[in-house]
Write a structure and sequence with these properties.
The structure holds 2 protein chains of 2 kinds. Chain A starts with a helix and ends in a 15-residue tail after the last helix. Helix content of chain A is 59%, strand content 0%. Chain A contains 22 helices and no strands. Among the domains of chain A are: 71 residues, no CATH class; 118 residues, Butyryl-CoA Dehydrogenase, subunit A, domain 3. Chain B has a domain of 246 residues: Up-down Bundle (Cytochrome Bc1 Complex, Chain C), CATH 1.20.810.10. Chain B contains 16 helices and 4 strands. In chain B, the strands form 2 sheets. In chain B, strands 1-2 form a two-stranded antiparallel ribbon. In chain B, strands 3-4 form a two-stranded antiparallel sheet. Chain B is globular. The N and C termini of chain B lie far apart (73 Å). The chains are: A mainly alpha, B mainly alpha.
């Protein structure tokens, strides 16, 4: 604690120190002088920032120039622009970066002028992250700092699809280091997270369905304060979105048992990075089930799992049966849209019953299943009624057609008789002119 | 047996003294129908009238359940289709009979056009017929919106947009039709009023005139038949022609019943004014040729907006058709008029081809 407090204090001192630089607002006009020389150096390393910054970076777009970060005097034409006496710091050291960026980004009053909704706690969070702690404690030169995720001179807001921190690109950005086995070798941690994440339902939801609210790395690990969730708080992380499941789980017998066993809550059954789409097949004591990992079919938990699976399968079957008969009636032209709409209640009940599995009690699941079964039965009965009605209509049609055809036949006979008798007294050859 | 006969005789005498049955009987017996190779076309007027009667009867039954507001229209039709005994039958027959009636109406119109039955002294019969056609199209257009489903909502939005392009009066017409700037519940209520009150009242007047004139002038013998000396054979309207008419009406009834039982008219999804328009919105088939024509027109024709040219063009086309009795002088003089026969044929081919394209070609073309 003392060390952490000391570090934060040191950071504040550093912030005070760097505040001796010209204020960001005073950094304008933009550093055209820097760009002119940098483009003429012939050194790609020096030219690249000058080329990128003007057209790509949000800071340039907001009117900031080179001196806003690097210090110095933008108005000076020659090398005197890079006078340390004028605050020039050159390329900031890794350890300096949080101070350089934080000078503005931790200043709420300053940031309000540009983006009032942007958080200003990035540096404070960073110091609590694994990255920040290693930088501080071990001066680790490989850990991520600001520019590792936000490429210097080409920083874009997260909402920009080209940004390295756009939701669709976050996983790749983190994976650039965390997926590199060689780079990560000294840390002795797995490097298959990216590969696993890309198999997950979360990535599928984001990349295929286009739902950018689906979780990526930072939603579970934090971004500036990135750290692996501890065993005891995995549930809290998942529970940010899966609230109901988390509530059920927290009150369940498993919550306590898993903690005692040191098993990481949700991840015990659903994995962590490779979170596949759940299915009813996970429940029960068969080979593909997750319950079978700990429970035998004959123990109490195994029996409960089998019963819960039976209840859910039953509801799914009844709901599918009702849906099928309503579809059959609909295809035959019957109006069953209200019954189809009502049957959505059974689908909701099935979703709730699946969530109630996290209570790990048969009673909890049964309560939801019974609601769904009642709805399914009613919908099925309406489907049967619609098909009966259809038969009635067709029989009615057949009878009425017979009657109509009989009438037509009678009429045709009458007409023939009339024609045979030579028609009415006026005769067919009356000399009448019309028109 | 004598007692009932004498009772019938007394009733007849009683009625005769009051409503002059003998005169009516005389009138009915006097009515003659010419018999020639085109006699078959005479049935289509009667068939249209029969289908109109079906419309009136089923329409009145629908009125008992239908509620003309954006909040309740769809639900009331849904209730009628699912909960009301034979509600499905009444609605399906109303919808199918409307379409069959439009079909027989067009057949009647074009048979009259090609057989030159508009020639003097039947000009006013033709005008009243054309006005009845306009009323029928109005019935179709306003009735389509009433179930307040997605397709009808967006088709009405497109349909009411079209008169909006008419120079000068367009925007006013559009607002008048919609009861505002957009298609809303106000439009639905307005269309309902037009569909069940204004159009029926006008139809009664015009149909009365049309039928009176048909009785007055009798059936027209096509000039071609007349020139060849045909059409002198006749058959009495009562009972010969009426019985044949009945065969046609019963056949139409059988077709309607089969359509209602096997292809009940769909209700679709409830209209959602905030949803985006679904792909492939189509008007009713009898508007399709105009809709498709407007799609083919370029954005600008001689500096005028293509849509305006199209709408004004259809207006002029309708006016031309209306004034045909005055334009076709040769027929009026009793001479053959091949030009107007060809004009009629071209109009029919044009309508069929464009209607076919409307259904066959991709909705985006």
């Amino acid at each position: 604690m003392m060390r952490a407090a000391g570090f934060v204090a040191a950071m504040w001192v550093a912030l005070l120190f760097v505040s001796a630089w010209p204020s960001p607002a005073a950094a304008e006009p933009r550093g055209e002088g820097c760009v002119t020389c940098h483009l003429e150096t012939g050194d790609d390393r020096l030219e690249k920032p000058a080329k990128e910054f003007g057209k790509e970076d949000i800071h340039a777009a907001k009117g900031f120039g080179c001196t806003a970060c690097h210090g110095g005097d933008a108005r000076a034409a020659g090398m005197e622009a890079m006078d340390p006496a004028k605050g020039y710091i050159g390329k900031p050291e890794r350890a300096q970066l949080t101070q350089v960026c934080g000078r503005c980004h931790s200043d709420a009053r300053f940031m309000k002028q540009y983006n009032p909704s942007l958080r200003v706690d990035q540096v404070a969070e960073y110091v609590t992250s694994v990255h920040g702690r290693r930088l501080r404690e071990q001066a680790d030169p490989k850990v991520a700092t600001c520019v590792s995720c936000h490429p210097a001179h080409a920083i874009k807001p997260p909402s920009d699809p080209r940004s390295s921190v756009h939701p669709l690109r976050v996983a790749d950005t983190c994976g650039r280091c965390h997926g590199d086995a060689k780079y990560m070798e000294p840390y002795k941690i797995p490097t298959d997270q990216l590969q696993k994440y890309k198999q997950s339902v979360h990535w599928k939801t984001m990349s295929v369905k286009g739902d950018l609210s689906a979780p990526t790395c930072n939603d579970c690990h934090g971004n500036h304060g990135a750290a692996p969730p501890g065993v005891s708080w995995v549930g809290n992380v998942c529970g940010q979105c899966h609230t109901v499941n988390q509530e059920f789980f927290a009150k369940s017998v498993h919550a306590k048992a898993f903690t005692q066993m040191g098993v990481p809550g949700c991840a015990a059954c659903h994995n962590n990075h490779e979170i596949r789409e759940t299915s009813d097949a996970m429940l029960g004591t068969g080979q593909a089930t997750v319950c079978a990992g700990c429970h035998a079919a004959s123990d109490k938990g195994g029996k409960a799992a089998t019963d819960m699976r039976g209840l859910i399968d039953g509801l799914r079957g009844e709901s599918d049966k009702a849906r099928a008969i309503l579809l059959q009636a609909e295809r035959a032209g019957m109006e069953v849209s209200q019954a189809q709409f009502d049957l959505n209640g059974a689908k909701d009940a099935l979703v709730k019953a699946r969530a109630a599995v996290h209570t790990f009690t048969v009673q909890g699941v049964k309560k939801e299943v019974e609601v769904g079964l009642t709805i399914s039965e009613k919908a099925y009965a309406r489907g049967v009624r619609a098909l009966d009605e259809l038969q009635f209509r067709r029989k009615g049609l057949a009878i009425s057609l017979v009657i109509i055809l009989a009438l037509i036949a009678a009429l045709v006979l009458t007409i023939r008789q009339l024609d045979r008798r030579g028609g009415a007294p006026q005769g067919k050859t009356q000399e009448t002119r019309h028109g | 047996m004598a007692a009932p006969d004498s009772r019938r005789g007394r009733l007849r005498t009683w009625l005769d003294e009051r409503v002059d049955l003998a005169a009516l009987e005389k009138l009915a017996k006097k009515k003659e129908i010419p018999v020639h190779r085109h006699t078959v076309w005479y049935y289509f007027g009667g068939m249209t009238l029969f289908l109109l009667m079906v419309q009136v009867a089923t329409g009145i039954l629908l009125l008992l359940y239908y509620r003309p507001s954006a909040e309740e229209a769809y639900e009331s039709v849904q209730f009628l289709m699912t909960e009301v005994q034979f509600g499905w039958l009444v609605r399906s027959i109303h919808s199918w009979a409307a379409n069959l009636m439009m079909f027989t109406l067009f057949v009647h119109l074009f048979s009259v056009l090609l057989l030159k039955a508009y020639r003097p002294p039947r000009e006013v019969t033709w005008f009243s017929g054309m006005a009845l056609l306009a009323l029928a199209l109005g019935f179709g257009f306003t009735g389509y919106l009433l179930p307040w489903n997605v397709l009808s909502y967006f088709a009405t939005q497109v349909g009411t947009e079209i008169p909006g392009v008419i120079p000068l009066v367009g925007p006013f017409l559009r607002r008048l039709l919609r009861g505002g700037d957009e298609v809303t519940g106000a439009t639905l209520t307005r269309f309902y009023g037009i569909h069940v009150a204004i159009l029926p009242a006008l139809t009664v007047l015009l149909l009365g005139l049309h039928l009176f004139l048909v009785q007055k002038h009798g059936m027209s013998i096509p000039p071609g038949v007349e020139r060849r000396g045909g059409g002198r054979r006749t058959m009495p309207f009562l009972p010969h022609f009426l019985l044949r008419d009945l065969v046609g009406w019963l056949s139409a009834l059988a077709i309607l019943a089969a359509l209602a039982a096997y292809l009940p008219w769909e209700l679709g999804q409830k209209a959602d004014p905030f949803a985006s328009a679904p792909a492939g919105i189509k008007p009713e088939w009898y508007f399709m040729f105009m809709f498709q024509t407007l799609k083919y027109l370029p954005s600008y024709i001689l500096g005028i907006e293509g849509e305006i040219v199209g709408v004004v063009g259809f207006g002029l086309g309708g006016l031309f058709l209306l004034l045909i009795p005055f334009l076709d002088r040769q027929t009026a003089r009793g001479q053959p008029s091949r030009l107007f026969t060809w004009i009629g044929i071209v109009i029919i081919i044009y309508m069929i081809v464009l209607t076919y394209l409307g259904y066959a070609v991709s909705p985006t073309k």
